[in-house]
Design goal:
This protein is of the alpha+beta class. Helix 5 crosses helix 6. The longest helix has 19 residues. The chain starts with 10 loop residues before the first helix and ends with a strand. The strands form three sheets. The chain has a six-stranded antiparallel β-sheet with strand order 3-2-1-5-4-6, with helices on both faces. The chain has a three-stranded antiparallel β-sheet with strand order 7-12-11, with helices on both faces. Helix content is about 45%, strand content about 20%. A hairpin with a 3-residue loop joins strand 1 and strand 2. It has 15 helices and twelve strands.
Length: about 375
Amino acid sequence: MQNIAVNMPTQEEYSNLGSYLQSFSEITQITAHFYSLTGVLVCDEMVYSDERDIQKHLDVNQAKKYTLFPICINGKLWGFTVCSSNTVPEDRIRMSKQYLENIFSQVFENNPESMLTMVLEPLDNNQFNQMNYLSILLKMNPNFEDNSVVQQGESQTSTFDSSESYKSLSNAVDYILRNVTQPISLNEVADQVFLSSSYLSRLFKQQLHITFIDYVNRLKIAKAKELLALTNKPVNIISNLVGFSQTSYFTKTFKKLANTTPSAYRKQTISAKRIFTIPHTVDWTPQCTVFSVSKRFFKQEGIDFFYQSVNDHIYINSIDNLIDSNRNCGWTFTVDGEQPNVPADKMMVSDASEIQWVYTNFNS
């Protein structure tokens, strides 16, 4: 990240700012973080400069609403104070400008470089959206595009989300995921969620764009791929472990969905070291990409997920602390068993059943 041509605060000043913002949050019940355009995050009395740490701790999507106060040093934009609260009215947050001005004045009042700080009026939604739009036009930061996609997806699914059908289908998917290694029938799942089997079948087609049996089988085959790639268990044992009573039917289903036999797949993935499977759930929307779905999944699971912007696209270079070393090891992804030729942030997945991230040793 490029440096801004102003005198930068010291580590001590950043630490002091963290203490003041913490006091501000305790008094006002408004969570406040500061992010500088030089790549420094002040959050919960801690100072972070590593991109991995910043991604972990600065997540405005957790808040229902947030307000950005631009901060200037000596007349030049320095960064933003991000204020959020799920209980305090937005107007009250916007009225915190004077309080924040006092904080920054106290932090820098003894600075020998005579830093003059200024807190500007907060950005409204339209101004923030225009920033996003400009960023997309200039192809500078695809992260903004991803955030807007998530927001649009949420608004478009609100009607279905609030319905009993949504809850029933969500419960059905949860039941399948919990029991994917067992034989599963449509009637069994329908009984679990108190729906008729015909209606549940229609819901799968309407909302997940796949038949019930294909959805279940794709998740079973995805689990089988993990076992084939990462263990030495015989094919007949793996067939039983993913809920197939007959190895012949398992092999037939595997070949249909993976376009290869289990044994051939094992040979193809001999260099795989780790696999994560992300199943299609009811919160996927028509705007979801591999990146947006993966980011949400790994966050929910508490798994490290680090990415960067490279050549106008999102590049995932670490999952669960397994780092892409370019020459030796790296992460690739498949969608329903196919490896797309587009980046993760451009690959739409509304009609997919599952995503798999595979960590591979390229030299094996």
